[in-house]
Amino acid sequence: MKNFIKLLIVAIVLFLICELIFSPKSNVPLGLENIDTKCCSNVQCNKPSTNKSFQKHIVAVKALGNVDESDIYDVINIIEQFYGYTAYVGTPVKLTQDLFVDGSDIVNADACLNKFFSKEKVVYVLDKRLWRNGNYLRGYAATNGGTVFVRGEKSYLRETTIHELGHTLGLNHCNDLSCIMAINNDQYDSGTFCRKCANQISFYE
Ligand SMILES: [Zn+2]
Ligand SMILES: [Zn+2]
Predict the structure, then answer these.
(1) Ligand nearest to the CA of 201
(2) Which ligand is nearest to the CA of 181?
(3) Architecture of domain 55-168
(4) Ligand nearest to the CA of 165
(5) pLDDT digits (tens, 9 = 90+) for 17-55
(6) In degrees to the nearest 10, what's the CA dihedral of 86, 56, 116, 165?
(7) 0.90 cut: is pTM over it?
(8) Distance 26 CA to ligand 1 centre (A)
(9) CA of 71 to the centre of ligand 2 (A)
(10) 52: burial class by Cβ within 10 Å (0-12, 13-18, 19+)?
(11) Domain with CATH 3.40.390.10 in the chain
(12) For 93-104, what is each residue's pLDDT tens digit?
């Protein structure tokens, strides 16, 4: 009888070990979640997207002129959290006279883009007002290029960074006011892409 109990205990232990080793884990491979299943298209949806279906990029974040170091790290965190890219502090760049609107303290966005255009993703953060064609801009980017300029202003740093990087992924402005690619939509902005834009990025990738 004692032997039978011993055998029974051994059998139970073996069964438990087999269960631990062979029980199926999650079937979803890491990094392959589809953004479509995570993103809602209504205004209430503030859920940040993990966006792991995006192609991986490595993004340099550079100060353009004198910029508060915390702005650089904020931009790095925003990029890493939203896009899942790797971002790092790049070599700071000087704001030279040729980048200013004549004799002013305002930076010419086109002059910056002409001077720093690159295919690689580089985000320049500046603490000056950015100007183009009579408008002051929170940010500026080359569509389908890699160059992005954002003004280091805490209140809209996140929206601007995500929006401008969206342009580098081929997105244009969006009519859906809840979408981060819409313009003049502060009170409706959900902080992420609408379904249409999200799908378009997957297409471009
Ligand atoms: Zn834009
Ligand atoms: Zn959109």
Answers:
(1) 2
(2) 2
(3) 3-Layer(aba) Sandwich (3.40)
(4) 1
(5) 444 444 433 332 222 222 222 222 222 233 444 444 566
(6) -90
(7) no
(8) 39
(9) 26
(10) middle
(11) 55-168
(12) 999 999 999 989
